[in-house]
Design goal:
This protein has 530 residues and is α/β, with parallel strands linked by helices. 53% of the residues lie in helices and 9% in strands. The chain contains 26 helices and nine strands. It has helices at 7-10, 23-34, 52-64, 78-85, 102-111, 134-145, 165-168, 181-195, 201-210, 215-228, 236-243, 248-259, 263-275, 280-299, 303-306, 311-321, 326-343, 349-361, 369-390, 415-423, 425-430, 434-440, 462-468, 472-486, 510-518, 525-529; strands spanning 41-45, 91-95, 122-127, 151-157, 172-175, 444-448, 455-460, 491-496, 505-506. The strands form two sheets. It has a five-stranded parallel β-sheet, covered by helices on one side. Helix 12 packs parallel to helix 16.
Length: 530
């Protein structure tokens, strides 16, 4: 029984036509070959699995091909077959990770003195070239600058920033792009047909996405999935099982629990994932990605172009984006990004995730600026909404019969009431008409804490004070709003900013305002039922 060949090796492209997602490089190289303008040194940069070594081998093959076809190797001549089989002396592949010393490069320098016995070029492919030592780079320099006419160097690296500028300036540099999900999915579908494996389109796209821009990674994952479910149709759920991933429906449930502040529900849902054998690191990465998609839906004018999801998923994301603010999403993403870094070295991964979920549900646990802003936003909302109904309960007026109706005179506001009026000033201003509201937003409510009188002082700047002065309708409107909210009548006096001499006025602080408005009875549905 012959040994099995991995998909990424079995379907490695053997001509430029089959190379996917690197059209800008393929076109340039084929044009060079057709015009016989082949360079002496190339530097291929890009992330893993994007085709650097594959393109290098094809280039080595085509420059030695006896019958090239339109800039591509024929793959039928003796030279092509030998290179394909790895037996040719003309294409020498060196792994710089294990041969990174000066001696390895000196051997190359000695070898290049001799012409190839057959074929036109000697092609040296140095993989992971950034691993070479400083001495090895220096030894390579001279040869790279003026190699014999029959030698081509192809240097490949995933970390171009580690290549000395002296080496880089002597090479033609080509940057290999991360391959798009569409391109990878298309290639996977082609290979599945050749292999005779049935697969759902959704499953193929998930594998393509999991490849993260690398064709080789995607093919390795596909290999894994096919092996696990040999002879069966590859479904989306099966792919999720093999890769230890989580369905997006779970993220949707998790997010809704977080928004509601249901920490217990989040912990139970995490328990389900753990019992189901989901990989926790994968869950953290996927949930962060899910939050990132939500953020793009909220901030992008064309979310369908910004994120790669099905129309069904986009509809769900759009619905959920309405439930949460941009700043809150940013906080969630920050917490999960920090968690991702911590988990690399953690032994108790689950505990870390549980703590992170509780932090999402309880912004009060944090002191970061965005958490404080999130808390202030929640508190401001409470301050604006609650006092309108419940700052001070208005006294109930007994219903009178038509014949014995009495005119109701509300009691005068006591000094303690003034303090509460000042604390709930935002709610009072919100109830006034537009013109009055615009004037009041530029004024500051104060009271005299020394004398204990029941006068509400409104400190105005010069311009808004002039509009107020002598305008009885404004004063009357403000008094009526205060009376409607508090059930108390209050004397109002206008004072210009900095001109209230002889009176010691106080302004309630933010902390007091929060204390006044947060620590009070809240009317809930449960109370109503009782």
């Amino acid at each position: 029984m012959g040994s099995y060949t991995a998909l990424y090796r079995k379907f490695r492209p053997d001509s430029f036509v089959d190379v996917k997602g690197q059209d800008h490089i393929v076109k340039t190289l084929t044009n060079q070959i057709k015009a016989d303008r082949i360079g002496h040194a190339y530097l291929f940069c890009g992330t893993r699995g994007t085709g650097k070594t594959t393109v290098a081998k094809i280039l080595g093959k085509v420059v030695n091909c006896e019958h090239p076809v339109d800039g591509n190797p024929c793959n039928e001549c003796e030279s092509c077959k030998a290179i394909q089989a790895g037996t040719s002396m003309n294409v020498i592949e060196i792994d710089a990770a294990s041969n990174n010393g000066v001696d390895s490069i000196r051997e190359i320098r000695e070898e290049v003195m001799y012409r190839p016995t057959e074929g036109k070029y000697k092609v040296y492919i140095i993989d992971e070239v950034h691993m070479l030592s400083t001495g090895a780079f220096n030894a390579l320099l001279k040869t790279l600058e003026e190699p014999p006419s029959y030698v081509i160097f192809i240097l490949a690296t995933t970390e171009s920033h580690k290549i000395p500028i002296t080496i880089m300036s002597r090479c033609q540099r080509y940057d290999f792009h991360r391959i798009t999900i569409d391109t990878i999915a298309g290639r996977l579908s082609e290979l599945l047909k050749v292999e005779g494996v049935e697969a759902e389109e959704r499953a193929v796209r998930y594998v393509a996405k999991a490849g993260d821009g690398s064709m080789r990674d995607a093919l390795s994952l596909l290999d894994q999935c096919i092996a696990f479910y040999l002879g069966e149709t590859l479904t989306y759920d099966k792919v999720l099982d093999v890769l230890g991933a989580t369905d997006t429906e779970v993220f949707s449930r998790m997010l809704r629990m977080v928004i509601q502040g249901d920490a217990t529900g989040c912990i139970h849902l995490l328990e389900e994932l753990v019992v189901g054998g989901k990989e926790l690191g994968q869950f953290v990465n996927d949930f962060t990605w899910y939050l990132r998609n939500l953020l793009l839906v909220k901030t992008s004018p064309n979310p369908e172009e910004a994120i790669d999801v099905s129309s069904e998923s986009l509809k769900l994301l759009t619905e959920e984006a309405e439930m949460v603010e941009v700043e809150t999403l940013m906080r969630y993403i920050r917490i999960f990004s920090e968690l991702s870094n911590q988990m690399r070295y953690a032994t108790q991964k689950r505990v870390l995730i549980e703590v992170a979920l509780i932090r999402l549900c309880r912004p009060a646990m944090e002191t970061n600026l965005d958490s404080v802003l999130d808390r202030i936003r929640v508190l401001e909302k409470q301050i604006k909404e609650r006092p309108v109904q419940q700052v001070i309960a208005a006294p109930k007026v007994e219903q009178q019969t038509a014949g014995e109706q009495k005119e109701y005179h509300p009691p005068k506001a006591a000094p303690e009431d003034l303090k509460k009026i000042v604390a709930s000033w935002n709610a009072i201003v919100a109830r006034t008409g537009n013109l009055l509201k615009s004037l009041l937003t530029k004024s500051v409510p104060k009271y005299d804490g020394t004398t204990g009188d029941s006068v509400l002082y409104i400190e105005c700047n010069g311009i808004s004070g002039k509009y107020f002065e002598g305008n009885e309708s404004y004063m009357k409107e403000l008094s009526e709003v205060i009376e409607a909210i508090t059930g108390k009548s209050v004397d109002i006096k206008l004072v210009a900013a900095g001109e209230h001499t002889g009176v010691s006025l106080e302004q309630i602080s933010v902390e007091e305002a929060l204390k006044e408005n947060i620590h009070m009875d809240i009317e809930t549905d449960d109370n109503k039922e009782e």
